[in-house]
Write a structure and sequence with these properties.
Length: about 300
């Protein structure tokens, strides 16, 4: 008779709940920044780039939209002038708002940019297209994310097709440099290459690429989750903690759906109260799958990898 060896005990993977917030919680693909005048603004997919304001990151109020109406060129990409997945940043004495316009399931897409002296809704001036993609391209020009490093300005972007890409921008205009190389940062082995919504931050000597994997926008049936890899160069190659390249499907799982918090993704990272914070949306399984704002502090472990708290 063969003796059976005891099975090895394994701790169940757990993920933190988002911090409790009040007020207007509905949001999708949030980008958050602390304003120079005080308080915080979050912009998101929905409306003409929907806006939320908060004094303390806890209570959020609906603040209308970034724009009163869609700029006319948006209608080249969809019939409703509907923008997606904005990214807000501050440099050169003004706020910069990048966003994408497209239609579902198409890579006939464009990324645009607007500027504002205050960052508040209703104060934005649109400057048109930054970068575009067409049906003949192997990438999709949506989901922009800006990082400035070593005196150069870069934009990560991408959704499905071949995953996450990057181009260099002109710091003066905020638009893609003519003839800029399109770098490849992350993808998966099989179609439809479900990686999108990149965000890059530098911590220590590494650049960290956060991205949303799997399916968005299906309410409680969404399977979105956030993965991360890192590189010593902003243009890659990015690898996970096991050394697997993100161009080969790698990526450490940072946050996944759990309990009522389904389909965590559409993430960005911002600095507030002396900490890095992860902003994202989740679909509330206890409220008809409505997308809501998730906020968690990011903690950096001794080995440099982030965890959500």
């Amino acid at each position: 008779m063969v003796a059976l060896l005891p099975s090895t005990a394994r701790a169940e993977v757990t993920y933190p709940d988002p911090k409790a917030i009040t007020g207007q919680q509905i949001i999708h693909d949030p980008t958050v920044i602390r304003l120079k005048a005080g308080g915080y603004v979050a912009y998101s997919t929905g409306g003409v780039i929907g806006a939320r304001l908060s004094k303390d990151l806890k209570h959020w109020e609906d603040a209308g939209n970034a724009f009163a109406e869609p700029p006319s060129w948006w209608y080249e990409y969809n019939d409703t002038g509907d923008p997606w997945a904005p990214d807000i940043s501050y440099r050169s004495g003004k706020y910069w708002l990048y966003y994408s316009v497209s239609s579902w399931g198409s890579n006939h897409s464009a990324i645009g940019v607007a500027t504002s002296p205050t960052g508040r809704p209703g104060t934005w001036t649109d400057h048109g297209k930054v970068f575009t993609s067409e049906r003949t391209d192997s990438w999709n020009a949506i989901d922009p994310a800006i990082i400035r490093t070593d005196g150069r300005l870069w934009m990560a972007f991408g959704s499905y097709w071949t995953g996450i890409r990057m181009v260099e921008l002109d710091p003066l205009t905020g638009k893609a440099l003519p003839g800029a190389t399109v770098h490849h940062l992350a993808t998966r082995a099989d179609a439809p290459y479900a990686v999108e919504g990149p965000y890059i931050v530098k911590h220590g000597r590494y650049y960290y690429l956060f991205a949303s994997y799997d399916a968005c926008c299906a309410g409680v049936n969404s399977t979105y989750k956030i993965r991360v890899g890192r590189s010593t160069s902003v243009t890659g190659p990015y690898v996970d903690s096991t050394g697997k390249p993100l161009l080969e499907g790698g990526g450490d799982l940072l946050l996944a759906g759990h309990g009522r918090f389904v389909g965590t993704g559409g993430e960005s990272v911002f600095r507030a109260k002396g900490h890095d914070w992860l902003a994202y949306h989740y679909y509330d399984a206890e409220d008809q799958g409505i997308p809501k704002l998730g906020l968690n502090q990011l903690h950096w472990k001794a080995d440099g990898w982030p965890i959500a708290l």
